[in-house]
Design brief:
175 residues, four-stranded antiparallel β-sheet
Protein backbone atom coordinates (compact mmCIF):
# COMPACT_ATOMS: atom_id res chain seq x y z
CA UNK A 1 0.00 0.00 0.00
CA UNK A 2 1.28 3.47 -0.78
CA UNK A 3 0.52 6.90 0.57
CA UNK A 4 -0.51 8.15 -2.83
CA UNK A 5 -3.19 10.82 -3.02
CA UNK A 6 -6.29 10.06 -5.07
CA UNK A 7 -6.24 11.44 -8.60
CA UNK A 8 -7.47 15.02 -8.74
CA UNK A 9 -9.89 16.40 -11.24
CA UNK A 10 -8.12 18.75 -13.65
CA UNK A 11 -10.97 21.27 -13.30
CA UNK A 12 -10.60 21.72 -9.53
CA UNK A 13 -7.77 23.40 -7.76
CA UNK A 14 -6.16 21.65 -4.82
CA UNK A 15 -7.24 23.23 -1.53
CA UNK A 16 -4.57 25.09 0.35
CA UNK A 17 -3.58 23.56 3.66
CA UNK A 18 -5.34 25.54 6.38
CA UNK A 19 -3.07 26.82 9.10
CA UNK A 20 -3.49 24.84 12.31
CA UNK A 21 -5.58 26.74 14.82
CA UNK A 22 -4.95 26.75 18.52
CA UNK A 23 -7.89 25.61 20.64
CA UNK A 24 -9.96 28.60 21.58
CA UNK A 25 -10.57 29.39 25.21
CA UNK A 26 -14.23 29.52 26.20
CA UNK A 27 -15.76 32.93 25.72
CA UNK A 28 -17.53 34.22 28.81
CA UNK A 29 -18.60 32.32 31.90
CA UNK A 30 -19.92 28.80 31.62
CA UNK A 31 -19.65 25.22 32.71
CA UNK A 32 -18.97 21.77 31.32
CA UNK A 33 -20.51 18.49 32.43
CA UNK A 34 -17.63 16.14 33.20
CA UNK A 35 -19.71 13.14 34.36
CA UNK A 36 -23.22 12.08 35.35
CA UNK A 37 -24.07 9.07 37.50
CA UNK A 38 -26.61 7.32 39.72
CA UNK A 39 -25.35 7.46 43.30
CA UNK A 40 -28.34 5.69 44.82
CA UNK A 41 -31.59 4.27 43.45
CA UNK A 42 -34.36 2.54 45.35
CA UNK A 43 -37.68 1.34 43.97
CA UNK A 44 -40.23 -0.32 46.21
CA UNK A 45 -43.50 -1.89 45.13
CA UNK A 46 -44.46 -3.42 48.51
CA UNK A 47 -48.00 -4.52 47.66
CA UNK A 48 -47.35 -6.00 44.21
CA UNK A 49 -49.25 -7.38 42.39
CA UNK A 50 -52.23 -5.75 44.13
CA UNK A 51 -50.71 -2.28 43.70
CA UNK A 52 -50.84 -2.74 39.93
CA UNK A 53 -54.66 -2.84 40.03
CA UNK A 54 -55.38 0.44 41.81
CA UNK A 55 -58.57 2.22 40.78
CA UNK A 56 -58.14 5.93 40.20
CA UNK A 57 -55.01 7.95 40.66
CA UNK A 58 -52.90 7.53 43.77
CA UNK A 59 -51.83 10.56 45.82
CA UNK A 60 -48.27 11.60 44.98
CA UNK A 61 -45.90 13.01 47.58
CA UNK A 62 -42.73 14.32 45.97
CA UNK A 63 -39.53 15.74 47.41
CA UNK A 64 -36.73 17.59 45.62
CA UNK A 65 -33.33 18.44 47.09
CA UNK A 66 -30.28 19.94 45.42
CA UNK A 67 -26.82 20.02 46.96
CA UNK A 68 -23.46 21.11 45.63
CA UNK A 69 -19.94 21.03 46.95
CA UNK A 70 -16.50 21.88 45.67
CA UNK A 71 -13.82 19.25 45.31
CA UNK A 72 -10.04 19.49 45.80
CA UNK A 73 -9.53 19.03 42.04
CA UNK A 74 -11.43 22.27 41.30
CA UNK A 75 -14.56 20.53 40.05
CA UNK A 76 -18.00 20.74 41.65
CA UNK A 77 -20.23 17.81 42.54
CA UNK A 78 -23.98 18.47 42.27
CA UNK A 79 -26.54 16.04 43.69
CA UNK A 80 -30.20 15.95 42.74
CA UNK A 81 -32.31 13.89 45.14
CA UNK A 82 -35.84 13.02 44.03
CA UNK A 83 -38.26 11.08 46.22
CA UNK A 84 -41.70 10.02 45.03
CA UNK A 85 -44.24 8.15 47.10
CA UNK A 86 -47.55 7.09 45.54
CA UNK A 87 -50.28 6.06 47.99
CA UNK A 88 -53.97 5.31 48.18
CA UNK A 89 -56.11 5.17 51.32
CA UNK A 90 -55.44 1.43 51.46
CA UNK A 91 -51.76 1.08 50.56
CA UNK A 92 -48.42 2.38 49.36
CA UNK A 93 -48.48 1.91 45.61
CA UNK A 94 -44.78 2.60 45.03
CA UNK A 95 -41.86 4.48 46.51
CA UNK A 96 -38.90 5.73 44.45
CA UNK A 97 -35.77 7.44 45.75
CA UNK A 98 -33.07 8.59 43.35
CA UNK A 99 -29.83 10.39 44.11
CA UNK A 100 -28.44 11.47 40.74
CA UNK A 101 -25.10 13.25 40.59
CA UNK A 102 -23.09 15.30 38.19
CA UNK A 103 -19.52 16.52 38.12
CA UNK A 104 -19.13 20.02 36.68
CA UNK A 105 -16.19 22.18 35.64
CA UNK A 106 -16.83 25.93 35.86
CA UNK A 107 -14.92 28.57 33.92
CA UNK A 108 -15.06 32.32 34.21
CA UNK A 109 -18.02 32.33 36.61
CA UNK A 110 -18.01 35.28 39.03
CA UNK A 111 -17.95 34.27 42.69
CA UNK A 112 -21.47 35.59 43.38
CA UNK A 113 -22.90 33.49 40.51
CA UNK A 114 -21.38 30.13 41.47
CA UNK A 115 -24.06 29.07 43.98
CA UNK A 116 -27.05 29.88 41.73
CA UNK A 117 -25.34 28.17 38.79
CA UNK A 118 -24.70 25.03 40.83
CA UNK A 119 -28.18 24.89 42.37
CA UNK A 120 -30.31 26.04 39.41
CA UNK A 121 -28.61 25.44 36.07
CA UNK A 122 -26.70 22.26 36.89
CA UNK A 123 -29.78 20.44 38.29
CA UNK A 124 -31.71 21.66 35.23
CA UNK A 125 -29.25 19.74 33.04
CA UNK A 126 -29.37 16.63 35.26
CA UNK A 127 -33.17 16.52 35.53
CA UNK A 128 -34.09 14.93 32.16
CA UNK A 129 -31.77 11.99 32.87
CA UNK A 130 -33.13 11.56 36.40
CA UNK A 131 -36.69 11.76 35.04
CA UNK A 132 -35.96 8.95 32.58
CA UNK A 133 -34.47 6.75 35.32
CA UNK A 134 -37.60 7.18 37.46
CA UNK A 135 -39.89 6.51 34.50
CA UNK A 136 -37.97 3.35 33.67
CA UNK A 137 -38.00 2.16 37.29
CA UNK A 138 -41.78 2.57 37.57
CA UNK A 139 -42.26 0.89 34.19
CA UNK A 140 -40.02 -2.01 35.21
CA UNK A 141 -42.06 -2.20 38.42
CA UNK A 142 -45.15 -2.98 36.35
CA UNK A 143 -46.76 0.44 36.14
CA UNK A 144 -48.07 1.52 32.78
CA UNK A 145 -47.94 4.24 31.82
CA UNK A 146 -44.72 4.90 33.74
CA UNK A 147 -44.61 7.77 36.22
CA UNK A 148 -43.36 10.88 34.41
CA UNK A 149 -42.17 13.76 36.56
CA UNK A 150 -43.41 17.19 35.54
CA UNK A 151 -40.71 19.80 34.92
CA UNK A 152 -39.28 21.30 38.09
CA UNK A 153 -38.73 25.03 38.68
CA UNK A 154 -35.23 24.88 40.14
CA UNK A 155 -34.97 28.70 40.18
CA UNK A 156 -38.17 28.91 42.24
CA UNK A 157 -36.89 26.29 44.68
CA UNK A 158 -33.58 28.16 45.00
CA UNK A 159 -35.29 31.52 45.63
CA UNK A 160 -37.65 29.99 48.22
CA UNK A 161 -34.68 28.34 49.93
CA UNK A 162 -32.74 31.64 50.03
CA UNK A 163 -35.78 33.50 51.42
CA UNK A 164 -36.25 30.84 54.08
CA UNK A 165 -32.60 31.11 55.11
CA UNK A 166 -32.78 34.93 55.18
CA UNK A 167 -35.83 35.08 57.43
CA UNK A 168 -35.12 31.93 59.45
CA UNK A 169 -33.23 33.36 62.46
CA UNK A 170 -35.47 36.46 62.72
CA UNK A 171 -38.66 34.39 62.88
CA UNK A 172 -37.36 31.95 65.46
CA UNK A 173 -35.93 34.68 67.67
CA UNK A 174 -32.37 33.47 67.24
CA UNK A 175 -29.55 35.83 66.42
Amino acid sequence: MTDAAPPSDANTAAPADPAPQAPQAPIGPGFRIVAQYVKDLSFENPKAPDSLRVDGKPAIDMGVEMNAQGRPDGLFEVDLRLTIKATTDAMTVFNVELLYGGLFALHGVPEQDIEPLLLIECPRYLFPFAREIIARATSDGGFYPPFMLDPIDFAGIYVARQQSIARGPAETGKA
